[in-house]
Amino acid sequence: MLNNSFKSLILSAFSIIALSFIFSGCGSKYYFEPKEEEIKGKVSFNDSIPSPIISIVRDGATLKNGQFITKYSEIPNVYLPQDTQYLNQTEDYYLAGTYRSLLLIDKQTNEQISIAFDNTPISASMNGPLIAVIFDNNTFVLYDLNRGQITYKQDSTLAPTNNTLIAAPYFLSDIVIVPTLDGKLVIVDRNNMQMIRNIVVNGDKYFNNVIFLEAIGNRMVAATPKRIISVSPSVINTFNANIKDVLFFEDRIFIFTSEGEVILTDQDLNEKRRVKFPFAHFTAANHGRNIVILETQGYLIALDDELQNSAIFALPNEIDEPTFSSMRKIFIGNKILKVE
């Protein structure tokens, strides 16, 4: 049996070892620190918004005061009820989700239509009277507003943890593409309400929801935090990376990674060039004349669209607030940065 003094010695030794691991772990954290001569100047915020951002989805952000930002950088004079999250918009309605209900807000009259469901909507799109809704339990439905009923429903595997950039369903001609929380694209024929295809983007269990979904011409691009796919009528191409965000143009795709890399590919995901900014943590990406990225330590990185040249600018402060990137603007907390 160990005597008390020996026990104390052992415990002290373990405490010293534990502390050394803690301090060595803290000391091993690295941050993006460009050299002074690499910083080309300073960039100021252009404006502010009425209230800070409290939640984000791919197509919008909700503000603390109940207003919201659309993907077109608009902040309508509309206030959501408490505990409601803005999701999307159509030509006629704003769509928002609250506990077990989808809220439609008429853009002309501000009249609200509440549609009750069994679960809480976290993503939605609407085309004509047909609404595609994804719920927090990874179920999705197609709901006909004119008929007041669900016309298609599909359950999927529970996805307990998700990236906040939840992509919205996509209406394309006679089909509806639904991005699930477990990394799939479910394609439903809206004429006969039958599933015609199920595409697995990535099969990881956690943080695997589809964070990006867009179609240009005959090309569809989708991404989870671990994989991006490009779907054409003849082939599906894939590219693996730790993905923070994606920008998709007709002939090129930009992938922004957790390792501080920007990767340029063609529409088939063949890599053309990559640039790395050591230890950079990207928080938002946008495009104007250049590709623009915000980095959490308080920097703006601008790159040309061939990734041949880059420039780094200092922001007024570090970024520790939610950011939302929309048309030619990036919203940081309650500040606005215009992208020229």
Features:
340 residues, five-stranded mixed beta sheet, four-stranded antiparallel beta sheet, 1 helix, 32 strands, 7% helix, disordered N terminus
Describe it.
With about 350 residues, the chain is mainly beta. Helices cover about 5% and strands about 50% of the residues. It has 1 helix and 32 strands. It has one helix spanning about 5-25; strands spanning about 40, 45-50, 55, 60-65, 70, 85-90, 95-100, 100-105, 110-115, 120-125, 130-135, 140-145, 150-155, 170, 175-180, 185-190, 195-200, 210-215, 220-225, 225-230, 235-240, 245-250, 250-255, 260-265, 270-275, 280-285, 290-295, 300-305, 310-315, 325, 330, 335-340. A 5-stranded mixed sheet has the order 1-29-28-27-26, with no helix packed on it. Strands 2-32-31-30 form a 4-stranded antiparallel sheet, with no helix packed on it. A 4-stranded antiparallel sheet has the order 6-7-8-9, with no helix packed on it. The termini are far apart.
